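Structure (tokenized):
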């Protein structure tokens, strides 16, 4: 079973933000693009995927995040960037996905929703919790 995360970030992730997240996830991991570049996969030494990261999507409609994820996510101000991250059931994949999501939040502000219904972290773009 997969473990899903959505990083709801306050600013559009730049190439530097994505690279920082990839490095934090694990420099020993392989990286490949699939689905015409719409998804980046982090792979183990056998080139088997551990984590898939979709391109960020801009959410502009107030209440749309809550409609999609439920009220447990709390209030999300729009516009926000939705970054979907999916970890496989393989050992260590969940932790890699969490590291990636948390780097985005630490750099850009926002919050992380998980399929377990837990917010891993929350930070405003001004740097306060």
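Design, position by position:
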């Amino acid at each position: 079973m997969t473990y899903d995360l959505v990083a709801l970030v306050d600013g559009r992730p730049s190439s530097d933000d994505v690279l920082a997240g990839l490095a934090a996830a694990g420099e020993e991991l392989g990286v490949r693009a699939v689905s015409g570049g719409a998804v980046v996969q982090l792979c183990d030494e056998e080139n088997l995927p551990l984590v898939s990261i979709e391109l960020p999507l801009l959410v502009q409609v107030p209440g749309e995040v809550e409609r999609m994820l439920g009220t447990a996510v709390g209030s999300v101000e729009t516009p926000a960037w939705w970054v979907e991250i999916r970890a496989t059931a393989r050992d260590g994949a969940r932790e890699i996905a969490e590291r990636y999501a948390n780097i985005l939040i630490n750099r850009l502000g926002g919050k992380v929703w998980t399929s377990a219904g837990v917010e891993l972290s929350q930070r405003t773009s001004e740097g306060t919790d």
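Reviewer-requested clarification: The mean pLDDT is 89. The helical segments are 15-25, 64-69, 93-108.
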